[in-house]
Amino acid sequence: MVEDEEWRAVPGYEGLYEASSKGRVRSLDRELFVARSRRNGGSSYRRQLKGRVLTLNSTLSNGYLGINLSLNGKGKMQTVHVVVCATFHGPRPPGMVVAHTDGNKLNNAASNLRYATYKENAADAVKHGAGNAGTSNGQAKLSEAEVRAIRRAPDSIEVKALAAKYQVTTSCIRLIRFGDRWKSLEL
Asked: Most buried of 51, 77, 126, 171, CB within 10 angstroms?
């Protein structure tokens, strides 16, 4: 079944922009007042701007889609998922972030967005394989096989010896053994 696309006014930009239930944003028809100085040829004029679906900017460094929304002649870059979520789910509660239910940062449909705590959002990222736990963390010095070997090592092997063998600190070895590091890795 194909879902109909619903358009609603973007909060704070009423009469200027609308967001759709499918994750798109459009500008509305409006009249723009252009003030010209005498030095630039004189009189001011009004210009009609035709509304259109905005092109989403996919070059944001964090992987999210962005758009530039203008209010009173000043543009502001916004992330599409935040705009769509605010439009369809209301203002963001304190301490919450916008989460993508399916883990896809490019799927900004209102039905795929929700407010979640930072912890819930991080758990979603791990569930969808987008987290930075384990070897996907750029700071990781150990492989999953090495962490499993450390956990399986008998208690009789000293922490110092394991630290020297794997070229990490003794505190790193202790945290792995106690389960405070590499929590997501199962034996």
From this structure: 126
What domain count does the chain have?
2
Could you tell me the CA-to-CA distances from 75 to 17, 30, 37, 159 in Å, in that order? 13, 16, 22, 56
pTM of the model: 0.66
In terms of residue numbers, what domain contains 146?
140-177
Residue range 85-110, pLDDT digits in tens: 999 999 999 999 999 998 888 999 99
| 113 CB-side CA count, 13 A | 26
| HEC sequence for 119-170 | HHHHHHHHHCCCCCCHHHCCCCCCCHHHHHHHHHCCCCCCHHHHHHHHCCCH
Residue 91: strand, helix, or coil = coil
- Give 11-56 pLDDT, tens digit per residue: 999 999 999 999 999 999 988 777 776 666 667 777 888 999 998 8
Does 48 share its domain with 111? Answer: yes
